[in-house]
Design brief:
This protein is an all-alpha fold and 256 residues long. Helices cover 68% and strands 2% of the residues. Helix 5 crosses helix 8 and helix 7 runs antiparallel to helix 8. The chain starts with 14 loop residues before the first helix and ends with a helix.
Length: 256
């Protein structure tokens, strides 16, 4: 038998109304109004931001980062690659001391020039397919050859940078001030030590880089023979023609 105190049942208040003092319908209406207000405020802020950027000429952060990276990137030229590779006298010494195979730089450049010319002439009928004022438009061929020559220069420059880094590493290991003097000791298996290995590896990379520079020189010579003007690396200053830059300046002066 139940002997506890009995309480009459009570109708529970809705949790939503109990916590906020609003009925479910009024709560839904209130949330809808709040959402609409936030959406409108966000849209207004975005419009003001876009208008401010358009007025001040400010570019998007991604565009600014891209342009800054392009400005910081080194301009890849054949001269920059040649400044890093061994000079002819050094190449002679490298070949003699390390027993590496020598190469004829002039012959290699001529071979590269001929190969570049053959490829360009083979592509000419395919890439020169449009006419302008009754004459063939060879702009497509010129653009492709510019990229081909640029690829040869970039390859030579990359190899030259790699050689320069390995040469610095070998010099560090071979320095008398190197605290890791065990680098100069013969290995337990009778093989050369790390310093000697580093010097030989740097020597091999120097020969490779010099050969690639000679090959790139031949490609540039072929490009100039076919196009009539020397090859130039891509930079922000020569990305557009003089007429295009002049037109952009005039439009900027007129405000459109």
């Amino acid at each position: 038998m139940w002997r506890g105190k009995w309480f009459p049942p009570q109708t529970p208040r809705p949790v939503l109304e109990h916590r906020t003092g609003l009925t479910p319908d009024r709560k839904a209406s209130f949330m809808s109004n709040a959402t609409n207000t936030m959406t409108a405020a966000l849209a207004s802020a975005q419009e003001k931001k876009a208008a401010s950027k358009a007025k001040s000429g400010q570019k998007a952060p991604a565009a600014r980062r891209f342009e800054e990276a392009a400005r910081r990137a080194p301009v890849i030229t054949i001269e920059a690659a040649e400044a890093l590779i061994p000079v002819p006298d050094q190449i002679t010494k490298i070949v003699s001391h390390f027993g590496l195979e020598d190469f004829d730089a002039d012959a290699l450049a001529e071979t590269a020039r001929q190969a570049f010319t053959v490829i360009a002439r083979s592509l000419s009928p395919v890439l020169v397919v449009t006419t302008w004022n009754g004459e063939q438009n060879d702009k497509g061929l010129e653009m492709h050859l510019q990229r081909m020559a640029g690829a040869a220069v970039a390859s030579a420059f990359g190899a030259a940078q790699f050689y320069d880094a390995k040469r610095a590493q070998a010099r560090e290991l071979s320095s008398q001030f190197n605290e890791y003097r065990e680098e100069d000791r013969m290995g337990v298996d009778g093989l050369e030590n790390r310093a000697a290995n580093a010097r030989r590896f740097a020597a091999e990379q120097g020969i490779k880089a010099a050969a690639l520079v000679a090959s790139a020189r031949g490609a540039l010579a072929a490009y100039e023979d076919m196009i009539g003007t020397p090859w130039k690396p891509y930079t922000a200053s020569n990305a557009r023609t003089i007429d295009q830059r002049a037109a952009a300046a005039e439009m900027d002066a007129l405000g459109f």
